[in-house]
Amino acid sequence: MAVLAAAQLLDELMGRHRNTNPNEKIKKPNWEDPEYCKYYMVKFCPHDLFVNTRADLGACPKVHDDEVKELFEKAEASYKKAQYVEEFLRFCRHMISDVERKIQKGKQRLELMNSKPEGPPMTQAQTEKNMEQVKLLSEKISALVREAEEAGTCGNVEQAQGLMKLCDRLKEEKEQLLKQQENSHWSMTAELAAAQEKQMEVCPVCGAFLIVGDAQQRIDDHLSGKQHVGYFKLRQAYEEMNEAREKEQQEKERRRREERDRERSIRGGGLGSDRRDRERMERDRERDRERDKDRDKDKDKEKEKDRDRHRSSRDERSGRHEERDRDRERDRERERDRDKDRERERDKERERDRDKDRDRERDRKHRRERRNSHERPRRRSRERH
CA dist 49 to 46, 174, 210, 227, 285, Å? Predict the structure, then answer.
């Protein structure tokens, strides 16, 4: 970029042919050569408008020559010349649409900044209590993870899965507490920012943020800045060239009608021919009106399509979020049902174990009673002897 800038400076000081030999023939400039900047020949080069600003486009890789620009302006109207103008307008339209999107985003940002936070901020005691709960939950989660790992190594897969599900629930509670604390923090910072900062607005030309009711000197500095002046010049040139092109098209249509009228008048006279000419003129006018209506309808359709696209994209996003929330809620319900079924199974197993223990205890009692019944007569016989 620096080399190109230095070369352009040398061209301005010493001429384009500074490196040619004295005996070498100098080629005459031609505006159709690809080395010359099309935008500079049409009106101005946008690369020169935003030098050393945030919207800097860098140095133009093409050559800017005033002599070639004069040749382009003096050249007769042609398809290539109209194509150059169309490319310049397309580039301007692209830059204007980019800055319009920037302005829209800036307005949305200001609306978010000016919107009130949801809910009152948390007190210091509530914050400390919240942090203690988060700490306890972290300890429980780490303990459950260790137990699940031990159960997995021992082969108790169901127990490990149950412990991991419980761990997931505790993690959700922890995330909710952290989110609540974060929302409280942002609400406090938003209130402080609203109290300290001044009211802002977005510049409708370049999209920069301005302070409402700021000093006149700063407002004048902004209005005379490169970025604001560049976008203003870009918008003004685009509007002027569009108006000139529309007037030129209307002028062409008027000339065509005049030529048609002359040809009809030359071909022959008579009442019948005049009537036919009038009818033809009326038909031509009707066609022109229909064309204008069709153009307006096409423009309205394009605008309506853009609105539908924005609406459909918003609806799709909201629908996706709702579906995700529903799926998560269904998964949670399923997990709850599974946990309940597992608890029932465990209760049944405990009942079975209790029944087995009771049966074992009964068997032991019966055995003891039998032993005692056999040992009594033996003791009696021993006592007699």
Answer: 5, 53, 21, 7, 44
Q: Residue 270: which pLDDT band, with cuts at 50, 70 and 90?
A: very low
Q: Tokens for 282, please give them.
A: 């009326």
> Residue 154: what pLDDT?
81
* 30: amino acid identity, one letter: N
Question: CB neighbours of 20 closer than 8 A, spacing ≥ 6?
Answer: 26
Closest by CA to 237, choosing from 58, 95, 89, 82, is 89
- CA 304 – CA 122 distance, rounded (Å): 46
Average pLDDT over residues 278-294: 78
Tell me if residue 29 falls in helix, strand or coil: coil
Average pLDDT, the chain: 78
Contact (CB, 8 A) for 35 and 7: no
3-state SS string over 31-97? CCCCCECHHHHHCCCHHHCCCCCCCCCCCCCCECCHHHHHHHHHCCCCHHHHHHHHHHHHHHHHHHH
How distant, in Å, are the alpha carbons of 142, 187, 289 from that of 245? 73, 53, 19
- Count CA atoms within 13 Å of residue 15 on its CB side: 6
Angle at 3 between CA 94 and CA 34, to 5 degrees: 50
Closest by CA to 219, choosing from 236, 246, 201, is 201
- In the structure, what pLDDT confidence band is assigned to residue 195 with cuts at 50, 70 and 90? very low
User: In angstroms, rounded to a whole number, what is the distance separating the alpha carbons of residues 195 and 181?
Assistant: 21
CA torsion angle for 222, 224, 225, 230 (degrees, to 10)?
120
Tell whether the model's pLDDT for residue 84 goes beyond 80.
yes
C-beta of residue 105 within 8 angstroms of C-beta of residue 112: no
Rg (CA), the chain: 43
Burial 154-173 (b: 16+ CB within 10 A, else e): eeeeebbebbbbbbeeeeee
| Residue 201 parent element (H or E) | strand 200-202
Across the strands, what pairs with 63?
36
Q: Per DSSP, what are the bridge partners of residue 36?
A: 63
Contact 230, 203 (CB under 8 A): no
Q: Note the pLDDT of residue 25.
A: 66
